[in-house]
Amino acid sequence: MTETAATEPTRVFLVVVDDNPEMRAALRFACLRAKSTGGRVALLRCVQPAEFQHWMGVGEIMREEARALAEELVRDLSDYVVEVSGQIPAVYLREGDSREELFKLIDEEPSISILVLGSGTGNDGPGPLITHIAGKGAAAMRIPVTIVPGRLSEEEIDALT
User: Fold this and answer.
1) pTM of structure
2) Which residue among 37, 42, 66, 154 sits deepest, i.e. has the most Cβ atoms within 10 Å of its Cβ?
3) Is 86 helix (H, G, I), strand (E, B) or coil?
4) Per-residue pLDDT tens digits of the chain, which is 161 residues long
5) Structural domains for the chain
């Protein structure tokens, strides 16, 4: 039996949502690639655990506030994904170190087929995730990584996809 387009697995482009401006370039690229290939975008947002442990109530309030902000950001970005790609994104909201949670998610979710990251635009280098993946993390990756230059304009990204 031969596979048809209807039975082929959907290509899922994972974007790590953070507060860096280059994330927007990666997100736009992923949305346009998903649209042109019949794929889908997935968003991963990690919330750092509250380190304020002196009073449990204060730590819990800080955790809830951080989660609420993360949910709001992902909701806004989901609207953007629908607008650009035409598809509702898969959303993963996790608590913990983004590097650790990223690798866990890729291991747990076989549908994720490409990781899309935006490279930093400052003098600090490409960013901690890219630096890690290009080094020790490369051996642990089971999917390809696309690095989008963070300085690309929307028009430049549109022309690439």
Assistant:
1) 0.87
2) 42
3) coil
4) 344 445 455 899 999 999 899 999 999 999 999 999 999 999 999 998 766 556 667 777 788 888 899 999 999 999 999 999 999 999 999 999 999 999 999 999 999 999 999 999 888 889 989 998 988 888 888 999 999 999 999 999 999 98
5) 12-160 (3.40.50.620)
Q: Which residue has the tokens 């947002």?
A: 45
Look at phi and psi of residue 156 and say left if phi exceeds 0, alpha if psi is from -120 to 50, else beta.
Answer: alpha
Within 10 Å of residue 116's Cβ, how many Cβ atoms? Answer: 25
Residue with tokens 């549908």: 111
The amino acid present at 94, given as its one-letter code, is: R
Give the DSSP H/E element, type plus range, for residue 132: helix 128-134
| Residue 12, both tokens | 């899922």
- Contact by Cβ (8 Å): 161, 132: no
